[in-house]
Design brief:
Subcellular location: Cell membrane
Shape: globular
Protein name: Polysaccharide biosynthesis C-terminal domain-containing protein
Largest sheet: none
Membrane topology: Multi-pass membrane protein
Pfam families: Polysacc_synt
Number of strands: 0
Order of helices and strands: HHHHHHHHHHHHHHHHH
Helix content: over 70%
Radius of gyration: 22 Å
Number of helices: 17
Distance between the termini: 43 Å
Keywords: Cell membrane, Membrane, Transmembrane, Transmembrane helix
Structural class: mainly alpha
Length: about 475
């Protein structure tokens, strides 16, 4: 599919619109420049294509996920939908954490091993990551079930069975994240994003609809079983297809395994990813701990709408991560500084534009979830302020991770997470869901400020939308961070 996109773009670039087509000259020139940029066969062209494809997939994904959540909210009602949301978000967080950083370590190591011709290490790390994630997620799931039964008396009864169902989803969420990282490391962006961001959100409401049609209750339990079925189908299909593609790219041969070294690198990444996932989802979890499920549903609906803005950041990050890794491996610090500034530019301005549109449409979009969801409109404004602050510097945590600055990045996210959790604990009891949004906004401001300062001091790179690409030369990046 990636090749199809490339061929289409190249053909378009080779056949510019004729003057008689009615397209103004300036528009034709813009299209020629755009297709010329996308046509490039160098690493810059590959990065641009990956970002564009990721951007397109995220647009489609946002639409599918948004419609799916509206369908589930309308079908289940606010209370049951809130239970589903709380458990599903918990499953996503814990499943990702169960990888212990291996899914991101793949993105760092595979391009470097491939550039150095160390194919045996590529075979070793891809197999090790799969087995490790499956084993760790299964252990975490078993501990989770034991915890639920052990502390059942201290939990609301409506959460018990849904939490147990959520535990059974964890192994496939973890394996899916490993497959995602493996595909990204090989620049197979469609293979990386399609299962998680297109197939799974599409299948969940489809399976839910079939279940309700067959007579099952339209409640959180049925929705979580639908999520379980969708997750297993997408992950196992991705495993099969990706395994076939890997065998074609890297012929069968010996595997070189450096488990101890990979774990030493992956664990700081695990802390970064863990703090990041907790940071981005702690508000939903904390609302679920302090407020009833109907408030969780309202907050999540507002946050889900604002997530439409996040795919800009995601698209740039997906395209830039392998590029950052390759430039660090080549010790090309000047180009690294230029690419970092470009990443910030292409993150901020689309975020502002799309965010403004989403806010204007906010009341209408919230009403689609149900008549009681409009209370979440102030939440959207508060969250957007934080998103805009973070977009000022672009994917700064990705740059630090790929530059070997995992430890300091983990410390940044620990500090930001503390700000977020403290803010939620203090503000939710007073201001409800608006308090949760304010705590998240404060954390995003702190995150942006800390990332900018560390990137400037550690790498001598001015990674912000205010910098001029190429203005900073960059200092040599490396693993010596503390």
């Amino acid at each position: 599919m990636v090749n199809t996109v490339r061929i289409t773009v190249e053909n378009a670039a080779e056949k510019p619109l004729a003057p008689e087509s009615g397209v103004p000259h300036k528009a034709t020139g813009f299209l020629d420049r755009f297709f010329g940029l996308m046509k490039g066969q160098d690493e810059h062209g590959e990065t641009r294509r990956m970002s564009l494809i990721a951007f397109f997939i995220r647009i489609v994904s946002a639409g599918i996920a948004f419609l799916a959540q509206i369908f589930l909210a309308r079908l289940m009602g606010q209370f049951e939908y809130g239970i589903f949301v709380f458990v599903w978000v918990m499953a996503i967080i814990v499943g990702n954490l169960a990888c212990f950083g291996f899914h991101t370590a793949l993105i760092r190591f595979v391009p470097q091993y491939r550039a150095q011709g160390e194919i045996a290490k590529i075979r070793g790390i891809t197999v090790t990551a799969r087995l490790f994630s499956l084993a760790s997620a299964t252990i975490v799931a078993a501990l989770g079930v034991a915890f639920v039964y052990g502390f059942a008396d201290a939990m609301p009864s409506y959460y018990l069975v849904p939490l147990v169902i959520g535990a059974f989803i964890l192994p496939m969420i973890a394996l899916g994240d490993i497959m995602d990282g493996t595909a990204r490391a090989n620049s197979w962006i469609v293979q990386a994003l399609t299962p998680t961001y297109l197939a799974r959100p599409f299948l969940i409401p489809v399976v839910m609809f079939v279940a309700v049609y067959l007579g099952y209750a339209a409640d959180a339990r049925t929705a979580l079983i639908a999520a379980l079925i969708a997750t297993y189908l997408t992950t196992l299909t991705q495993l099969t297809i990706l395994g076939w593609r890997l065998r074609r790219r890297f012929e069968a041969g010996p595997k070189e395994i450096e488990l101890g070294y990979w774990i030493r690198i992956a664990l700081p990444i695990f802390l970064i990813e863990g703090f990041y996932y907790l940071l981005t989802n702690a508000d939903v979890v904390m609302v679920g701990m302090f407020l009833p499920p109907d408030q969780v549903a309202t907050y999540y609906a507002a946050a889900k709408i604002m997530a439409l803005v996040h795919f800009v950041f995601f698209a740039v990050k997906a395209g830039m991560a392998p590029r950052f890794s390759a430039l660090v491996a080549d010790d090309n610090t000047g180009e690294l500084a230029r690419i970092a500034a470009t990443a910030a530019y292409w993150t901020f301005w689309p975020t502002i534009a799309i965010g403004g549109i989403v806010l204007v449409l906010g009341p209408f979009l919230l009403s689609l979830f149900g008549p009681d969801f409009q209370a979440g409109y102030p939440v959207m404004f508060i969250l957007f302020a934080g998103v805009a602050a973070k977009a000022l510097i672009g994917p700064g945590e990705t740059l630090l991770t790929m530059a070997g600055q995992q430890k300091v990045c983990a410390l940044i996210y620990l500090a930001v997470l503390v700000v977020n959790l403290a803010g939620n604990i203090l503000l939710i009891p007073i201001f409800g869901i608006n308090g949760a949004a304010t705590a998240t906004m404060m954390a995003m401001f702190a995150e942006a400020a800390l990332l900018y300062a560390i990137i400037r001091t550690r790498l001598d790179i001015n990674m912000s939308v205010l910098s001029r690409p190429g203005a900073a030369t960059g200092r040599k990046a490396g693993p010596n961070v503390l």
